[in-house]
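Entry for the shared binder. Reason: the reviewer on the internal report wants the predicted structure included alongside the sequence.
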Amino acid sequence: MVLSLLWWFGSFVSISSNQAIGSFVASPYVLRGICFSVSISFLAVEIGKLTHDADMRQFFLDSGFPVWFLYFVIIAEILGAIGLFLKKLILPAAFGLAILMFGAIFTHYNNGDSFSDSIEAFHLLILLICIIVIRLIHQREPNDG
């Protein structure tokens, strides 16, 4: 009984999954929702960085970066978060933020930090890649460019 249900579900999903996935991804609400979520996450992280300024300064210095780079990253992440709200800036904002997340992951790796220190950057990187892919799919549509 269970096997027949799994077989039926599998055949149903394989028949309709391409259409369902396509219409899901094509929905502008999906892209807006992910962008909103990622933007809020970045803005919350920036508030955290600013409220723990001394700790963040020390982390950047211990990582071999000058203090000004901390503030550059904060400003870049805030601008990227804002850019995710603007249709024409979604792609460059997501690319820029993805580069910053690669940098954060690499910095933690280079410092010998545990993976748990990079988990939020990794999570945001995955979401940013989703944003990039969905936005590129939307740009291929004739009326959305």
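Summary line for the report: The helical segments are 2-26, 28-51, 53-62, 67-83, 90-111, 119-140.
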